[in-house]
Amino acid sequence: MAFLRKLAIALVVFVLVVGAALFFLSRGDTADLSVEAVAGTDPTLQEPEPESFPTVQIAEPVGWEEGDAPVPAEGLSVNRFAEGLDHPRVLYSLPNGDVLVTLTRAPAKEGGNDGIMGTIRGWIEGLLFARAGAAGESANQIVLLRDADGDGVAEIQRVIRSEGLDSPSGMSWHDGTLYVANHDEVLAFDYELGDDQVTGDPRKLMDLPAGGGHWMRNMEINPEGTLMYIAVGSVSNIGESGMAVEEGRAMIWEYNLEDDTARQFAAGLRNPNGLDFSPWNGELWTTVNERDMLGSDLVPDYLTNVPVGAQYGWPWVYYKDTIDRRVEAPMPRFLTEYTRYPEYALGPHVAALGFVFTKEGHRMGEKFDSGAFVARHGSWNRKPPSGYDMVYVDFDERGNPQGAPVPVLGGFLKEDGTTKGRPTWVEWAGDGSLLMSDDTAGIIWRVLDSGAEPGSGIERLRGEPLRPQRELVDPRASFEEDYLRNQAGQQVD
């Protein structure tokens, strides 16, 4: 009887703790500002309001009905390029027009002894992930999508690789090699365009920090085919697990394909995702998911350039000089002096993921001919929800973002608080249309202006180096000239 009494007490305590946690999670902070007010080049940054319990409002995925589709911007049309896929995430277009997509979820967690609170926290997280449509075993597949007849639908869907994949996400191809980023490594496979299988053993290029809270590892190769960039997110929100576990994370790595060396390229990026190169000047840009638990209006996710050595402040500061007082780890000296201000805010908790710049040959029309397209996956910790759409960010003639985000695809959120799907990644198709993966719905959407001629793309900025305002003269020559003049004068006297 004593054992049963203790067991009953333990169960009651467990239920009370879980009930209290769920009660606090159901409260949360309601936003004071619109998403638009916390977006753009000069977002409104409220005073932070640290939360002991995160704001939670999950839009449960319910899927799309037959024949239903997202709402496109005026002048655009949308159709299903592929469907029936198991949680499609990253899209990658090959030079021959084939499209690859990774079917993937978070890696399986290794067992550990986190105590009763850790067990409860893990159980609650599992419930939240399941409700958001992110739970489940990873398919660990790369699927080839081929629209052989050019009708805008991929009639061929073929798994071309599953062996050796572990929560794969980013992909790149160059000169007969397909590069794939698992959550814990970068692999290189021999692969010729048009092949229906990726065979053979891969070569490991580099290890990556495994798993973690942010497990996706996107990659992009520069246009010259010499350098690869790999985005790695943090384990935690603000380093609360200690900075030792964040080693090699919250940053973008650069891998030199010519001499097989790697270096840390940019840091202080809590969760970088999309990567693309500016067509104006060739500079690397990325989307970043910022920190949580400062209220529904903070902190906005962003789109920004990433010059070599860039520092964006995580976890100690955000938006250059706003210090996060919750961080316990000692802040590096002079951090705010060299932390960068993000170029463009995309709104609070929108979960910005894949993005691409306007490309030559695009068929999106003149309204979308000079900017970037961004998939906003959608919040789980904002009231009301934010994101759940694809937007366009306009850029000026010098390659600087401007204005407010422009809706491209919407209609994902329903009035009852559920969602039909979650925008995840964007990529250009060979015919100039824009593809977007919808992971919870298992669909790849295709959007374009069917009446538009292929766009000319963005012209690269070119200029000459600034000339010096005056001619530079060797000071030794001036000294010798003055010395000889003085000597000659003395001899005359």
Radius of gyration: 26 Å
Task: Summarize model confidence as the mean pLDDT.
Answer: 91
Q: Which structural category fits the helices and strands?
A: alpha+beta
Q: Look up the CATH topology.
A: Neuraminidase
The CATH architecture: 6 Propeller
DSSP summary: helix tally: 4
CATH superfamily: TolB, C-terminal domain
Helical fraction equals 10-25%
| Count of domains | 1
How is the largest sheet built, in terms of strand order? 1-21-18-17-16
Strand portion, in percent? 25-35%
- Please tally the β strands and state the result: 28
Low-confidence stretches: none
Query: Quaternary arrangement of the chains shown?
Result: single chain
- CATH class designation: Mainly Beta
Can you describe this structure?
- By secondary structure, the chain is an alpha+beta fold.
- 13% of the residues lie in helices and 30% in strands.
- The chain has a single domain (31-40, 58-463), classed as TolB, C-terminal domain (Neuraminidase, 6 Propeller), CATH 2.120.10.30.
- The protein is built from 4 helices and 28 strands.
- A 5-stranded antiparallel β-sheet has the order 1-21-18-17-16, with no helix packed on it. The chain has a 5-stranded antiparallel β-sheet with strand order 2-25-24-23-22, with no helix packed on it.
- Strand 16 (272-277) and strand 17 form a beta hairpin.
- The longest helix has 26 residues, at 2-27.
- The radius of gyration is 26 Å and the shape is globular.
- The model has no long low-confidence stretch (mean pLDDT 91).
